[in-house]
Automatic annotation (TrEMBL):
Coiled-coil portions: 85-112
Domain of life where this protein originates: Bacteria
Designated name of the protein: Probable ATP-binding protein YbiT
SMART domains according to UniProt: AAA
Amino acid sequence: MVSVNQLAVEFGGFSLFDDVSFLVNPKDKIGLAGKNGAGKSTLLKILAGIQSPSRGTVSVPKDIKIGYLPQHMVHDDTGTVWEEVEKAFDDLKRLEEQIEQLNHQLASRTDYESESYLDLIHKVSEKNDHLSLLGGGNYASDIEVTLKGLGFERSDFDRLTSEFSGGWRMRIQLAKILLQKPDVFLLDEPTNHLDIESIQWFEDFLKSYGGAVVLVSHDRAFLDNITRRTIEIQMGKIYDYKASYTEYLKLREERREQQLAAYRNQQKMIEDTEKFIERFRYQATKAVQVQSRIKQLEKIDRIEVDEFDNSSLKIKFPPAPHSGTITLEGKGLSKSYGDLNVLQDVDYAIERGEKVAFIGRNGEGKTTMARMIMDEISYTGMLKHGHQVKIGYFAQNQADLLDENLTVLETIDHVAVGDIRTKIRDLLGAFMFSGEAVEKKVSVLSGGERTRLAMVKLLLEPVNLLVLDEPTNHLDIRSKELLKQAVKDFDGTVVVVSHDREFLDGLVTKVYEFRNKKMKEHLGGIYEFLERKKLDSLKELEQKTKQNGSNASKAKAEKKSEAKVSYEERKEISKQHKKAQQLVHKCEEEIAVLEEAIEELDVQMQDVVNASDPEFVKKYQEKTAALESKMTEWENMQEQLESIEELKKQLG
């Protein structure tokens, strides 16, 4: 479908790609792997036709539609969310207008037998067929489902796009691309501005999407859940694996081990051959054998071991100074921005040494709470820091706050005080800024490099509370893993605002969910929290349906709208219905086994010996008690199943 042939990209003598070739096939789900600066984003731009290579070609058939989502984009803030997203259907709307014009011409003519009239009918038929292929004119439902999946509420649809933050405007552009249904998606870090719920919806969408996907992401879980092929960019070359990201890592290690083994064997053979030649070079009786060995060496195809770029982050947070048992305590906390109430009467407490995650949809107050902890914004209520608590803060936009006129070295030199000044270059080296790289201006650094530099500033002073707001944005996967290990090893308290499931997994032991202006505490890790959320979703849907049904006067008006947005609900209910049916069936099988066992015991109970045996009687009582318990369990399950079936009927 898309063919890349002998691609080369050079910048002022530096080669980013050298003789790269590969194919993107229909339905391929490809993840591009490689460290920051390897060329992943550049390759996407070339595939999208935005950037030209130094040499080589990219061939795309004319009828193939490509949808490209860059990391950074210029937003068009001239209309509402709905109007902006509706632009995805501009071609379809133009086609509708053309059909309407042609139908108007047909209605005004009476020369039914003429050739031009028949041509007009043919054109209308042709355009109607094309319209049908594009999905017809019923696209409002698609728009609504997509916007809701990406986290928008119905009340947002008529708001101006200029009212939203950059992250939400990126979602608007993503919605447009999704609705255009391109043959090939080119997605550059699409999850950077999505919350966990939206990421899960987006995953489901891409997994079931019929087109091809080429994806750059530092979200390992996202890559594993979507991709089935990984193209690694390493030192200007590519390595193509028919595997997801985690499987690719194993295969890459196996490939290197095989290469090393073959390389060692070949080197041993070469060494032995050279020794033979050197030993018998001047002996006439061995001349034929020596010449044969020389020719053998000349013909040998030398094995090369793939060169791995092993430069990586080496992070270790300074030891945390001792602090009080309670690190943070909030009571009756509320925060509003004008008329918008974000948090209302929130209470929570975080103890020394705890590592907790702030989770929730964007706009629910996670970053607001982080800024309240840092006393950067005003609020009502009491927020108390524990005894001797010293905070290190990494803001979501920390990398953007760096002075672009300074060099890397100057940035750190301006804030470092005390003995650490003698170790600035060592510290920068640990964050992959060594040699001439420390003289680079901040203005020319990549997103990942800026994030690393901002992280260096965080390490300049010992703290016992780390507040990290989206610290992994723009970091490559290896750097994220090393940062995660450093945070795990940190002996102080940590609050992480993040949507990166892989980063949070095994790191945090408590989750605070921000929802409906509250903070709800969940004990356990991130995947335990997400599993519980799935189980709770049915109850939420039932409540929603009851609320809708309680207002009979609106039922008719909302019926059509409900049909538009109930796809995700129906999908979730179907899953729950199937699961409930399986549980009921399993319970019935267990009841049947118990009833059969009790019947046999009833027969045996007629024997006087058994009836007077305490052990036999105890066994009989245990079986009957188990049956009674299982019957109660079955009744509860049956009630739940009936409730789900009723809900399915109401949603159609």
